[in-house]
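Continuing the series of single-chain predictions for the mutant panel. This is the parent chain; the variants come on the following pages.
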Amino acid sequence: MKIIPPEILLEAYAQGIFPMADSGEDEEVDWYSARKRGVIPLNEFHMTKNVMRIIRQGRFEVRVDENFREVVKACADRETTWINDLILNSYDILNQSGNAHSVEVYKEGNLAGGLYGVTLGGAFFGESMFREEKEADKVALYYCHQILKENGFTLWDTQFYTEHLGRFGCKEIEAKEYEKLLEEALKIEAEFTL
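Parent structure:
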């Protein structure tokens, strides 16, 4: 099984660099560092009233790190993906070493949505999310925010800004500002736990 060694991945993240596959088929990756970076300031995150109602009603069960590999596979299960087997296997190892995490949303015992990302110090690098049930991805996003806020994280990196993430408080910042936030976040010790 081919993997990117965990120490290489973590060193890259510490410098604001992340891997992506050009297609889900091959066993190679390219390394990227966005000139403008998407971040969700933890004190500016917001969620829709509809999703907050779903959370209050307890329609879903939420767990952390119980089914990491399946979350990554579900994130890759789309027409175009940057997640190939090399990324799947590499992040699975990173999860086992405590530096990659999944927020999993279940309905009647079935995985209904979720997200995964990498942690380093007080930084969380969001990688991807998916949903099988309506709003399950947003429920995962809400609980991810709760985990980050309650455990002392200071940087929520989404890599790129999208309009979809913008609805929850994501904004685009310049590389220089991002580098300062990352440098500060790496000095913190934070644990990703629900």
